[in-house]
Specification:
The protein is an alpha/beta fold and 209 residues long. Helix content is 33%, strand content 22%. Strands 1, 2, 3, 4, 5, 6 and 7 form a seven-stranded mixed beta sheet that branches. Helix 3 packs across helix 4. The protein is globular, with a radius of gyration of 18 Å. The relative contact order is 0.12.
Length: 209
């Protein structure tokens, strides 16, 4: 799709004010099985810097969406929570945390927003602007009236420093990690031996994304 031609006035002005949506969730294994030539092209074209490891298609939508924003514009997608912690999202998380200002993240892990589909989700709001060292991300969660399938309302839970998330292993989005919790974790880690120090840690069976 030629964005420069189809939206020439908007792109000449710097890009869109807002990009919002529900991108497709298609992991690399499915894409390799059904459209191997497409996956091979994406992996070797150099078009997407976040096409890393066994990437999911929505990661590329996130990168392209941010490219289409003007400076100061905002993107918001509903995406799987696995983006926050899995290795395939590491290149994307690094790009987002270091080059953009994450305004807020709605943590919807307690609600099945897609009904019986077994996927847990988050909704980040990302501004195309360099984050300041003092910037704190608002973490929002469903309110007290939330049900299993509907959040009803989203309320502020706590804030976490974006600089703190930048310092996390593999740039993980540790959205439960408030600054005070991080201080306690550092004290525990300083006096502990980790599992990774004594054996190889790998993933076992994963029941959902």
């Amino acid at each position: 799709f030629d964005w420069q031609r189809e939206f020439s006035e908007i792109m000449k002005a710097g890009g869109f004010d807002v990009v919002i949506g529900n991108p497709p969730y298609v992991n690399a294994w499915e894409l390799f099985e059904n459209m191997p030539s497409v996956r091979d092209f994406i992996n070797h074209s150099g078009v997407f810097q976040t096409a890393d490891r066994h990437w999911d298609l929505y990661v590329l939508f996130l990168e392209r969406g941010l490219q289409l924003l003007r400076e100061g514009g905002r993107l918001s997608f509903i995406i799987p929570y696995s983006y926050a912690i899995q290795k395939y999202g590491m290149a994307s998380r690094t790009m987002v945390l270091e080059q953009h200002r994450v305004e807020s993240i709605a943590d919807l892990r307690s609600v099945r927003v897609f009904g019986k589909v077994p996927v847990i989700t988050i909704i980040p709001v990302i501004e195309k602007r360099k984050p300041s060292p003092q910037h704190a991300i608002e973490i929002r969660k469903p309110g007290a009236e939330a049900t299993k399938y509907h959040p009803n309302s989203i309320v502020l839970s706590h804030r976490v420093s974006q600089k703190l998330l930048q310092s996390q292993h593999e740039h993980m989005l540790r959205i439960d990690l408030a600054d005070v919790v991080q201080g306690i974790c550092k004290k525990i880690e300083a006096r502990s031996i980790t599992v990774g120090d004594i054996c190889l840690v790998n993933y076992g069976a994963q029941m959902s994304s």
